[in-house]
Write a structure and sequence with these properties.
two-stranded antiparallel ribbon, Cytidine Deaminase, domain 2, 143 residues
Length: 143
């Protein structure tokens, strides 16, 4: 397991985008370094979100990957985020499937779930030996 460093500006974007009555979804951009995963930016609006889960659209992922390759976005896709409005911090079965699909591309991909009604978020990853793991707050730093 590795620590996650989240840029204050990236977290600000996530909070601003998810403050509504509709569930929202987006991508986390950053890099893996010796001292953990660095989330440097958050990009919003990359798929539908609904009460039964959130879905990242393949064409949206392809568009972001193309923007990364062409230098319009600096970094890599290091995860995704979505909101659970009033439902707490957890990953649904659909969310777990989304996480596993993204982790096919890199083992250093995380899911950030935010519930803006209680002003809390959690970071999750899937560890092959342990399954789904929520990172303890001691392993998450806001920079």
């Amino acid at each position: 397991m590795f620590g996650v460093n989240i840029a204050n500006e990236a977290l600000r974007k996530i909070v601003a985008y998810t403050r509504s009555s509709d569930e929202k979804i987006g991508l986390l951009i950053g890099v893996m370094a010796q001292d953990g995963l660095w989330v440097t930016d958050a990009i919003s609006g990359y798929g539908p979100a609904h009460s039964s889960g959130t879905v990242l659209l393949p064409q949206a992922l392809a568009r972001v990957a193309d923007d990364i390759l062409k230098g319009r976005i600096e970094g890599s896709i290091v995860g995704w985020y979505h909101s659970h409005i009033g439902h707490g911090i957890f990953l649904s079965n659909v969310d777990i499937d989304t996480q596993l699909k993204l982790q096919q591309f890199s083992p250093y991909v995380v899911a950030l779930v935010i519930d803006p009604t209680i002003n809390q978020f959690g970071v999750f990853m899937y560890e092959p030996r342990f399954g789904l793991v929520q990172l303890p707050s001691s392993q998450i730093r806001i920079i």
